[in-house]
User: What shape does this take?
Amino acid sequence: MLTVSDEQLLLSLFWMWERMKIVIEPTGALAAAALLEAKLDGRHDYRGKRIGVVISGGNADIKALCRLI
Assistant: This one.
C-alpha cells in the first residue's frame, strides 16, 4: 500500500486534466499520483518503462476542485 499527500494528489489530478485532457475524480488519480511521485518502489528505476495505471471516475465537482488547485 502506498500513500500520497493531498497536494501530490491534486498536482497529479491537474496534470491529468492539463496533459491528458481527461477529467477524473481525485480517487481515480491516486495510482497515477503515486507513480508520478515515484513512490512505487525505492529499489527500482521505472523511468523509460511501460507501466499501466487504471484511471477512473468522472464524478468530479469541477468548481470545488478548481478552488483547491
Notes: The two ends are 26 Å apart (CA to CA). The mean pLDDT is 81. The chain has one domain: 6-68. DSSP finds three helices and no strands in the chain.
